[in-house]
Structures are given as structure tokens and as C-alpha cells.
């Protein structure tokens, strides 16, 4: 595996790979890698001739500077994990490499980014679109792999690719969970022992919502979820929404004729955790 830090070096390296007829797969990450990331890398390597992983903590997608400062940075450990996962190229650029000039682009995704994460983290998805479009331009992959834990982000990135006409296929990959159900996240490393012990309640509550969907109405379901999460001294519900999986708009009723996704954001102290599950 090669570790590169400049756009010029990466482009030269990938040009050589593409000249050999290899397809290029890309997994963008912010580092602090875990099994969820590695599952993306392994699938990428299985399906593509060359697997590229970026490690870059993108400042433009953090509306909370304290959150940016707290985000874990573990480059040396990440490189070791990528080697075991079969990664071919790790791209670990500086901020100046990604943004040689300030990125002033403003993306309008309409209703997609005005709910849930977009409503609670103003500017977040604009920052995501800035960095993902920049990285896709640098790597120019055939396929890009994203995890479904960031369900709304996947919808936004897919829409961005469609609008910009980028020649890349977005590949959706399922959520990877701990044995106790907690969705894997780099932020889990920031949890105190008490918070970590309480955090599986998030997934447990989501799965319980799936079981209850045929026996309660939407208002009752939302109350049951809120009561379950807020009953924990370690957790505080930020939002729980049932949305149309395609449009991400809140449904008016559990009987609405669309595929429905239950999405949740919870605070454990200063750590913010998200999760989602399909309601069937």
C-alpha cells in the first residue's frame, strides 16, 4: 500500500493504474477507522482493480468548531488498518491540498438537506458536498463507497453526483454494528464508559420501533422512542423522524405509501450519535 499526501502524486499514481485498465474504487473517510470503514474498503477492493481511501477531517462540514477539535485523529493506526484491509492507496492530504483556495461554492439540494441533519447542523451538507466533489475530482473513481449509517448524507451525495453529472457510481453499503447493536462510528471512541454502556439503547429503541410500527400511530411511535431514549441519564434525544426513504421528507402517517426510514440523533454528553433503520 502506498501513502500519498499530495494531489499531484495521487493523480500520477492513479494515471498509471488506469493505464493498465484497472477500475478505481474510492472510499472517502475522516479517519479514526473502524470495522465499518474496513467493510467498505474490503468491498471496494473486491469489486475494483485499485482501492483508494482518503483520510481527511474536513473543516467545512463542521458547524460546531468544538466538534471539529474533538474529532479523533489516528493516522498511524488508520494506515495500519488499511494495509490489513487490502487498500492500495491511502490519500492523507493537508487542508491546503484539498482547498488550495477557499471553497465558496453553495449547493442547494432543496428539501433533501433541510430536514434532520440539515436542520440541526446548518451548513453541514454544503461542506460535505464541497469536500466530496473535490475528492471525486481528484481521484476520478469509477465507484465510490458510502455507508448507510449516514443515510441522509448518502442521499445528498447521490443528488450532488446527479446534478453535477459526475461519471461515478455511488455504492451503498449496509450499517455495521457492534454485538450489542450500536452502529459503528468514529465518535464511539469519545464515549465515556458510562455513555458507551448506555449507547446501545439507541439501536434497541429503533429495532423496537420496527416491531411496533403496525400496532401504533406515528405520534405514539415518536413518543415511545423519545421516552425510551430520555429515560437514560446518559442520553438525550435530539430528533427522531420517520421519513420517506427516497425524498427524506417526514411522513404524515405510518400508512403513507412509500418506503419509510426511521432516523435518529442522540447526544451522549458532548458526543452526537446517529442511526437509522428501515421501517417495514
Structure description:
- The chain has 280 residues and is of the alpha/beta class.
- It has two domains: 2-173, Rossmann fold; 186-274, Pantoate-beta-alanine ligase, C-terminal domain (Pantoate--beta-alanine Ligase, Chain: A,domain 2).
- Helix content is 40%, strand content 20%.
- It has eleven helices and nine strands.
- It has helices at 7-19, 35-47, 65-70, 75-85, 95-98, 117-120, 124-139, 151-164, 193-198, 200-212, 218-230; strands at 2-4, 24-29, 50-55, 89-91, 143-147, 169-173, 236-244, 260-268, 271-279.
- A six-stranded parallel sheet has the order 1-4-3-2-5-6, sandwiched between helices. Strands 7-8-9 form a three-stranded antiparallel sheet, with helices on one face.
- It is globular and about 60 Å long.
- The termini are far apart.
- The mean pLDDT is 97.
> Into how many domains do the coordinates divide?
2
Q: Specify the CATH architecture of the largest domain.
A: 3-Layer(aba) Sandwich
Biggest beta-sheet profile: 6 strands, parallel
Head-to-tail CA distance between termini: 42 Å
Secondary-structure element sequence? EHEHEHHEHHHEHEHHHEEE
Figure out the total of helices.
Answer: 11
Oligomer: single chain
Lay out the secondary structure.
Layout: E1 2-4, H1 7-19, E2 24-29, H2 35-47, E3 50-55, H3 65-70, H4 75-85, E4 89-91, H5 95-98, H6 117-120, H7 124-139, E5 143-147, H8 151-164, E6 169-173, H9 193-198, H10 200-212, H11 218-230, E7 236-244, E8 260-268, E9 271-279
Parallel strand pairs: 1-4, 2-3, 2-5, 3-4, 5-6
Antiparallel strand pairs: 7-8, 8-9
Helix pairs in contact: 7-8, 10-11
